[in-house]
Amino acid sequence: MKGYTICIFMLMAFIVKAQPPDSLILFSGYILDEDSLPIENAYLVSYRTIRGYSTNEKGFFKIMLLKGDSLMINHLSYERRIIKANNDSPLKNCHYLKFSPYSIKTMDVKYRDISMENFHRNMKLINAQMRRDMPLYRYNSDQNAYAPSPKPQFYGFSFNELYKYIKAKKYKKN
What we know:
The chain has about 170 residues and is α+β, with helices and mostly antiparallel strands. The chain is about 35% helix and about 25% strand.
């Protein structure tokens, strides 16, 4: 019984998926500025699919969308605008954008110098705190305990060290 219900649901999902997308429309139009000049490379982003489209040198675009989809029109030199997809002809879909160039804010050199002084003072405080709070190596060195040792350490004696040790012991006895 469960097998039949699963098959029926899978068949229904396949039938729904196989139906042609009759709600898709060809949405086309023009993106123009306030003086009715075409805006080349205006970027249109679909909110539903998160796909981007751009206009050609005449400001024309042509996109397959669902009716009622929202698009954001974006261009560096113009204000953003949101439009809805419709079945109108391209001549009726003329969207006008308002000119709005970006301006670069000036930077006061005095504030930069103050920021750099604060940065250097904070770095000195951080270094002092790290030296104070980090554990030290044996023999009271200034290095961090987690840093690699300056020379490789071997366990036990090497032959040279053993010879020097024995020699030192013999001379101490005499």
